[in-house]
Design a protein that fits this description.
This protein is α/β, with parallel strands linked by helices. Helix content is 49%, strand content 13%. The protein has one domain: Rossmann fold (3-Layer(aba) Sandwich), CATH 3.40.50.720. It is built from ten helices and seven strands. The protein binds NADP nicotinamide-adenine-dinucleotide phosphate.
Length: 251
């Protein structure tokens, strides 16, 4: 894909990987719109980069999604790229029953259902536009699931399958579908869970990860990993099973 001259919406674009995407795409000469739930985080991003456009939006809420697409249609008619990046991660222990899952934020709604609905809402807006693309952020845990994060892992495996299927389906209307597969990156994702894994240290910064991803996007690589996840994407089932046993024996 051409990484400049686009108009791009990034969900969850005020922090972490989404913010690194926002900075990289601004730097490359694109119009960038970011959304998220916390107004203060969006305002902070805009203070750092006044050219950013910001919108408070909970992608798991139907009313917010509707107002987002109406605002985009009215104000950003050039929009040709959607980045489904917003996500949450939780440790969930189902040996204790379902109440822990039910009490907290729902990873299926935020990580999987929202990208599905946003794809459906935005496909007609993007269809036929020059450089039209959807970029889904999945996870290495969608390929090698974590026993401590069964719902998160399932949501990201869903994003992987959805990306494959829509890559073929949406090619009919000229939309390229990319999947970005991060390994562990140093962000605010799941701070409690990470703190609980004493020896878990993440060195990879969002900017370093995203600059590698930008090179893959430019070359039209449709599944982009980095480090361990580059291996996961290409691994055999036997290799994935081995990684699964190794990773889960550490945690
Ligand atoms: N960091 C990693 O190790 C890693 C590894 C693999 C995959 N990923 C994926 O990368 C993506 C970005 O995560 P990150 O690591 O950069 O963590 P992050 O800094 O916590 O970013 C997540 C972003 O998503 C937004 N968000 C969460 N729920 C939302 C909702 N319902 N509606 C709108 N925005 C929402 C958050 O903003 P608000 O809270 O303001 O809404 C935040 O800006 C996620 O999909 C994550 O699963 C991360």
């Amino acid at each position: 894909m051409d990484i400049s001259g686009n108009s791009i919406l990034i969900t969850g674009g005020a922090t972490g990987i989404g913010y690194a995407f926002a900075e990289a795409f601004l730097e490359a000469g694109n119009e960038v719109i970011i959304c998220g739930r916390k107004e203060e985080k969006l305002a902070e991003a805009k203070r750092n980069h006044p050219e950013l456009h910001i919108k408070v939006c909970n992608v798991a809420e139907e009313a917010d999604r509707k107002s987002l697409i109406e605002w985009i249609k009215a104000s950003f008619s050039r929009l040709n790229i959607l980045i489904n990046n917003a996500g949450i991660q939780r440790d969930i222990d189902l040996t204790k029953g379902i109440s822990g899952f039910m009490a907290g934020e729902n990873e299926i709604r935020i990580n999987l259902e929202a990208p599905i609905i946003l794809t459906g809402l935005f496909a007609p807006v993007l269809a036929g536009k020059k450089g039209a693309a959807i970029i889904n952020v999945s996870s290495g845990l969608g390929f090698v699931p974590a026993a401590k994060m069964p719902v998160y892992s399932a949501s990201k495996a869903g994003v992987h399958a959805f990306s494959m299927a829509t890559r073929l389906q949406l090619s009919k209307v000229g939309i390229k579908v990319f999947e970005v597969v991060p390994p562990a990156v140093d962000t605010d994702l799941n701070p409690e869970g990470r703190a609980g894994r004493g020896n878990f240290k993440v060195d990879l910064k969002p900017g370093e990860f995203v600059s590698a991803v930008m090179k893959g996007l430019e070359k039209d690589i449709f599944e982009i990993g980095y480090g361990t996840t580059e291996g996961h994407i290409k691994a055999s089932r036997e290799e994935l099973d081995r990684s699964f046993m190794q990773m889960n024996s550490r945690w």
